[in-house]
Amino acid sequence: MTLLGDTKVAGASASRSGEVIQIRGGRPLRGQVDVRGAKNLATKAMVASLLGETPSTLRDVPDIRDVEVVRSLLEVHGVAVSEGEEPGSLILDPSAAKSANFEEIDAHAGSSRIPILFCGPLLHLLGQAFIPDLGGCRIGDRPIDFHLDALRAFGAIVDKQPSGIRLSAPEGLHGADIELPYPSVGATEQVLLTAVRANGVTELRNAAIEPEIMDLIGVLQKMGAIISYEPNRVIFIEGVQELRGYDHRSLFDRNEAASWASAALATDGDIFVKGARQYEMLTFLNVYRKVGGDFDITDEGIRFRRGEAPLKPVIVETDVHPGFMTDWQQPLIVALTQAHGTSVVHETVYENRFGFIEALNQMGADIVVHPRGLDGPYRRVPRRALEQAAVITGPTPLRGADIVVPDLRGGYSHVIAALTAEGTSRVSGVGIIRRGYEKFFEKLTALGADFDVVG
Ligand code: EPZ
User: Fold this and answer.
1) Terminus-to-terminus CA distance in the chain, angstroms?
2) What sections of the protein cross the membrane (predicted)?
């Protein structure tokens, strides 16, 4: 076994970068995977530590690149980050926080979008912030207009420069009355991280209410924030003068859990996802059952497998919570290539999230993408100009092919497709997947996947 980054992989030579794997497919994935803290909560909770006067402890932090990026950004701003006694925990001490220069920030911002969430905390702490141009998966143009409009509403001066955005708040930040044009997760987090220390009350309407948002509200309340929310997506935040550090265990990563569940469906496997919880996956579980998947829910996690009958086609519309998450559709589509009939997936959150489908069709799938979406009598999610639709006709046997990973969730789907296909596939760009899935190779090995790291 050779140690490769965070993983021992049979047959891998130590010099391999972990970017290219060769998969021999056609075998069901069977076994257990442990899903730890949510990528899309842990990274935000780390940023929130900047707001505390005392150190914070974050538990169940996933060992992924997005966490490393945020850790580096915190450290260039003088936050001391160290491993806690409990495995997978971090201690974040902001007492020496300071400004950082552009070169340092830009060098560490990497391909993440999280830096935009540093604005509010840095403005409270230092009266200024600089955010380099953002990265993140290429699944649309990923604008930040909602973020900047919100920061201006708090009284920040936003100066867009060629290399990024410089912000200042000479008069400090005051409560704001904000209505989001769309329940954006990131913009809601931006408002929460800014409002908690602003002078006065903030009312946020049309807010995102994803479980990761509610967990972040829990983190902020532990710090001393006063936050309430109503069933109609309205959140009230009463600014306070001082916040202290938190001790928090991140909720589980429901996107990773849904990915492994879809892998069990596609490969006719049987996977116990330790740490998965029913409540945060309710909508996913309904669709899983309609497709013909079976699951057993226990206190420790959820066991996912294909049912006895052949997989059935479904019509799915992605939506904001509590709808079907946009991050869940890519892995599910791989399973739908094996369903008996025609399925439709309407992607209503992002304008370019079907990039991974081309490779599936190369492998033998029959998927047609409608770039301007599709109407239909069954539609419940409000039509958006940017939406697209994928029509999947199955079952189609998949055969191995050489494929390049386009983005995090699409890339994971390529791996599921290669594991489902008969024959050998060569998947390049796997590093993107390891950015968002902790111990990815180790988990594939534990589930009996037959693969080698070849590049
Ligand atoms: C978060 O992205 C997640 N990323 C995404 O997961 C997730 O798919 C998305 O929320 C939706 O749930 C992180 O948390 C790091 P949005 P975010 O702001 O915050 C538009 C993954 O794989 N919009 O809710 O960027 C935007 O274009 C990633 O883990 C604006 O127009 O998503 C999109 O159409 C992929 N202007 C919609 O809102 C803005 O200023 C949803 O975006 C902000 C957003």
Assistant:
1) 16
2) none
- Alpha-carbon span 368 to 402, nearest angstrom: 20
What distance in Å separates the CA atoms of residue 271 and residue 297, rounded to the nearest whole number?
12
Alpha-carbon distance of 424 to 416, in angstroms, equals 13
Of 137, 184, 214, the residue with max ligand 1 atoms within 8 A of its CB, to mutate for a pocket test, comes to: 184
Query: How far is ligand 1, taken at its centre, from the CA of residue 46, in Å?
Result: 18
pTM above 0.70, yes or no: yes
Helices vs. strands in the chain: H and E counts, helices first: 14, 25
pLDDT per residue as tens digits for the range 95-141 = 998 888 777 887 887 667 888 999 999 999 999 998 887 666 665 66
Residues serving a catalytic function are 137
Q: What pLDDT band is residue 163 in, cutting at 50, 70 and 90?
A: confident
Q: Could you give all domains of the chain from N- to C-terminal order, each with its CATH number? A: 20-35+253-453 (3.65.10.10), 39-249 (3.65.10.10)
Tell the residue nearest (CA) to atom 18 of ligand 1.
184
What does the pLDDT read at residue 8?
Answer: 45
The dihedral region occupied by 18, where left means phi > 0, alpha psi between -120 and 50, and beta the remainder, is left
Per-residue pLDDT, averaged over 294-305, amounts to 98
